[in-house]
Design a protein that fits this description.
Blueprint (H helix, E strand, L loop, with lengths): L6 H14 L38 E2 L4 E4 L7 E5 L20 E8 L2 E8 L3 H9 L34 E5 L2 E5 L3 E2 L1 E3 L5 E4 L9 E2 L3 E3 L6 E5 L6 E7 L5 E8 L10 E2 L3 E6 L2 E3 L1 H5 L5 E3 L5 E7 L6 E5 L7 E7 L2 E8 L12 E8 L4 E6 L21 E6 L16 E6 L5 E5 L4 E2 L3 E4 L9 E9 L4 E8 L7 E6 L10 E5 L2
Antiparallel strand pairs: 1-5, 2-33, 3-4, 3-34, 4-5, 6-7, 7-9, 8-11, 9-10, 12-13, 13-14, 14-15, 16-17, 17-20, 18-19, 20-21, 22-23, 23-24, 24-25, 26-27, 27-28, 29-31, 30-31, 31-32, 32-33
The protein binds fe (ii) ion.
């Protein structure tokens, strides 16, 4: 990634937070106030507990460090996005629905500052004018009256909440959603509008994208629930759309993530397909169809003809990394037996080894730990990597029947030795841990893991940093946050010059 903010910009930002929150210091006076949460509740486990959205947008400076210390060398911001519906949903399917909310922790000179804001999408504006939810679920859409949209807005039957990821690319901060347009944000978390990538209309791209290690180009995925065409956009380091290549699948297919190597785009498509006709007879819009099999496409970056590989069905939401090794392509990812978070065997970390010449692949499991949200040191993306970091769940978490995507332990997979280092956070909920490279570091694991935690008993959240070389030793810094941070999806560390 390339970051353009100057030290003065960042100082102005942290100073502005300090000005807003002068005297507020920290949160004990805020804890438990009902105004933090939305004014509704739900029986849906993915809208309850620490999934219950928060309503309050706030700032706090010089947060209290309750354990350890924040490395003074870290200058930048950890931002994390997640589904945070403001209004009680008409129907809800985690993790496909919601309004985006960014939670940000700014680090400078060993101090931490916090800010959270909704992503001000057109969909959220429509519901705010209506005073209630008007969109159905991504999986069960409902008719939305076009009269609810302003002339400047494009009427849509499906919400774009821009809640899945937040990245920095081409000097822009982008809040990403699934298979639709994305929203540009400022460092202060103001919403600028839909991003056009140097073109005359908003660009459609998925929540996950990959950087080429040599060119700095960003490869972004665009799929559609209407057509079986999958597009891959190449955006140059200035953030301008440079080219697009397409491949065809048998049916419109959900593809949440993909892999980039030095020479290939690797599309790994499990048969989670969209069926518009099924909706008309009351069946789910998004279906798991194992009879269609697995389709893998190796798309050469030089414009050559794709190689297709077929196999037994599985599903993958997320890939840690992929790279070329001799004549093979190696992919480390989280394997789901099938689409659907609450069904099938627990998702586990596996290595896929693809043989392009034989048009075949094999799978090997690293462990039986239930996991998701795999991350690597992103500076090594698309290059050979050894370590993958991911959360898992143990009995130490005292939450009855935790739903999917609730974890309390962080794992470090050493894919060379097969060893797994772990740190059990006990009765603390955690999610994805983003990698924070140590400035000047050279080893792949020379850096930190950054994540939000939540104490379910106290309903209080923290920001934690672990030394990626020694995660078993636990956090090197625990920072108390001014309000509960709900379970989210993806975040990233954006270093500052
Ligand atoms: Fe994702």
């Amino acid at each position: 990634m390339h970051f353009t903010a100057t030290r003065r910009d960042f100082h102005q930002l942290t100073s502005s937070i300090a000005a807003v929150t002068a005297g507020a210091h920290l949160p004990s006076a805020w804890a438990g106030k009902p105004s933090v949460d939305v004014d509704w509740t739900s029986d849906d486990p993915h809208l309850s507990g620490n999934f219950l959205p928060v309503m309050r947008e706030t700032d706090a400076s010089n947060l209290k460090v309750t354990h350890g210390r924040i490395p003074a060398e870290l200058r930048g911001v950890y931002m994390r996005n997640g589904p945070n519906p403001q209004f009680k949903p008409l129907s809800f399917a985690y993790p496909l629905d919601g309004d985006g909310m960014i939670h940000a922790v700014y680090l400078e000179d060993g101090k931490a500052h916090y800010r959270n804001r909704f992503v001000q999408t057109s969909s959220l504006a429509v519901e705010r004018r209506a005073g209630s939810a008007v969109f159905g679920s991504f999986t069960r859409p409902v008719h939305v009256d076009p009269a609810l949209f302003l002339p400047s807005e494009t009427p849509s039957q499906i919400k774009n909440g821009a809640f899945v990821n937040i990245i920095q690319f081409g000097g822009k901060l982008l809040a990403l959603n699934e298979a639709t347009t994305c929203y540009e944000m400022t460092e202060q978390l103001q919403t600028v509008g839909q991003w056009k990538a140097g073109t005359d209309q908003p660009i459609r791209m998925g929540a996950h994208n990959r950087h080429h290690p040599r060119t700095g180009d960003l490869y972004a995925l665009e799929y559609s629930w209407r057509t079986p065409t999958v597009k891959f956009h190449r955006l140059n380091p200035a953030g301008v759309l440079a080219s697009t290549v397409s491949v065809e699948l048998p049916m419109p297919t959900m593809i949440h993530d993909f892999i980039l190597t030095e020479r290939y785009i690797v599309l790994i498509a499990g048969p989670a397909v969209f069926d518009v006709e099924a909706v008309k007879v009351g069946k789910p819009f998004l279906q798991w169809r194992p009879d269609l099999g697995m389709r893998i496409a190796l798309v050469p970056l030089d414009g050559g003809t794709p190689t297709w590989i077929k196999g037994e069905s599985f599903f993958a939401f997320h890939f840690g990394n992929g790279f070329e090794r001799g004549n093979e392509i190696v992919v480390d990812f989280v394997h789901h037996e099938k689409f659907g978070l609450e069904s099938g065997a627990p998702p586990t970390m596996r290595r896929m080894t693809i043989d392009p010449l034989r048009r075949s692949f094999s799978l090997a499991k690293f462990s039986d730990d239930r996991t998701e949200f795999p991350r690597i040191n992103h500076l090594h993306e698309a290059l050979p990597t050894r370590y993958v970091y991911a959360p898992t769940l143990t009995d130490s978490l005292k939450v009855p029947n935790p739903p999917s995507a609730v974890f309390n332990t962080l794992l470090k997979f050493d894919t060379e030795t097969g060893k797994i280092a772990r740190h059990d956070l006990g009765n603390q909920i955690v999610g994805e841990a983003a990698f924070v490279p140590r400035p000047g570091g050279t080893r792949e694991d020379d850096g930190y893991l950054a994540a939000f935690t939540c104490d379910p008993a106290r309903r209080r959240s923290s920001f934690v940093l672990l030394d990626a070389r020694r995660i078993h030793e636990g956090p090197i810094a625990v920072v108390e946050l001014p309000q509960r941070v709900p379970q989210g999806l993806h975040g990233n560390w954006m270093a500052k010059a």
